[in-house]
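Project standup — Tuesday

K.O.: blocked on the structure for the chain from last sprint. Re-posting the sequence here as requested.
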Amino acid sequence: MELNFFENEQRVRAVEKFGIIDPMSIKKQGSAYISYEEKDDWDVEVESHNRKDIFFNPIDGNIIFYRSVNSRQEKQKSCDAMIHTTDIIIFIEIKNWKTKHKNNKGEKISFWEDAVEQLENTIVHFCTVHPEKKYTKKYAYISNKHKLSFAFSISTTEEIFKDKTNGFILKVSNSIDFEHLKLKDSDLILK
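H.V.: unblocked you, prediction finished:
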């Protein structure tokens, strides 16, 4: 079966704001979902300014893809969700933990390393599966409700990320505002 990142697409209501909730944050199972209420549970707040052209796509648990490793297929980690319009696409990974966790190889990794890996995996696969999709504004958001400080340069990681993902801009925030997504020359797809 061919993958389609738009298969579970939902049109977002024309509202001023909506939220995205990762069920794991509220100790439940399932895929990320949009919410117009339950504001205390929102992991990501999206200021949509009553736009009628925003779509939400839950990814984790719905879109499963593999990579060939030593002649066997290994399931890849994916990000939580995607929101998009005809010209803007945003991939979102929600991490609400501060400390290091063990990955599936038993290695301790930070929320940052895990989130970047999940976003990279998803975006690279999306671009492979949907090469016809062209967006003028491309973002990847890491959301974490905890106030965090970093002991390394985020700007270096952002540049590497942008190179690996064909121009996606990496942001760390639990708030997305469609009015303030600025278009820069560097955001344009030149293909």
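K.O.: great, moving the ticket to review. The CA atoms of residues 60 and 113 lie 17 Å apart. The radius of gyration is 16 Å.
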